[in-house]
Amino acid sequence: MPSIFSECNKLKEGYDKCFTTFFQQYVNSEYRHRTLQNPCKYLFKLYKDCVEEGLKREKPFEIDLEEMDSGNSEARFLPLESTLEQFQENARHIGIIVSDFTPKSQEVLNQKIHTMISGLQELNSLKNKYSDIRVPLEVLDSLDEGKNPQMYTATCLERTLLKNKEVNGKIELYRKLHAKLLEALGEEMPAETLLYRQNRNLIPSNSEPPRET
To answer: Which PANTHER family does the annotation name (predicted)?
Structure first.
């Protein structure tokens, strides 16, 4: 799917390709992570900056980006992201140990299980800090399908833009229909039409009805 702004298409394609490759490796039990950092983070930042510049310039949805940033700063989510990344990595390690289990692995497995329990407790302690955040179920569906969850917002914006164009088109059609109906009624019932237009403040109230000939 192309970006909401055409000038950001190449950046989006580059990030999508990078993330897809990374995600497929990440879910592979044989993959060994050298770092917990997302290797596509820089590409995502470039694409994000491009989209934000487009939103500031064209304002298709009248979004106040500064207001959004002030209410949901990235620093607020850093503890949660770090805990989730560590928990996810620990769960992956447990899967590797269990898939190739030996008696010598028991002690390491026990340590990993205790670490996972501690991670769950830490996540539970953090939940009240994010009680105002609502995650759409579609994001979880995207994860299950192996799609990039960070593109969900862009997809929603694109859908909203298309819906906005559709609604604006319908509004314009209704306006034209309204004008045609008034024109036809004015020919058949000029006095009543004039009264209607005056009551709707479509014309000045001191206008005189057309005289019948």
So the answer is: MEDIATOR OF RNA POLYMERASE II TRANSCRIPTION SUBUNIT 10
Q: What are phi and psi of 28, to 5 degrees?
A: -85, 125
- Helix ranges (DSSP H) in 100-151: 106-126, 137-144
Distance of alpha carbon 186 from alpha carbon 210, whole angstroms: 10
pTM: 0.38
As a whole number of angstroms, the distance between CA 119 and CA 90 comes to 9
The span from the CA of 121 to the CA of 93, in Å, is: 19
Sole residue written with tokens 């298709």 = 60
37 vs 171: CA distance, rounded Å: 48
Domain ranges within the chain, ordered by starting residue: 147-201
Kindly tell me the sign of the dihedral angle through the C-alpha atoms of 55, 56, 60, 66. Answer: positive
Local confidence band at 213 (pLDDT 50, 70, 90 cut-offs): very low
Can you tell me which residue has the tokens 């694409």? 47
Q: How many helical (H) and strand (E) elements, i.e. helices and strands, does the chain have?
A: 8, 0
Instruction: Tell which residue, 37, 3, 2, has the closest CA to residue 22.
Output: 37
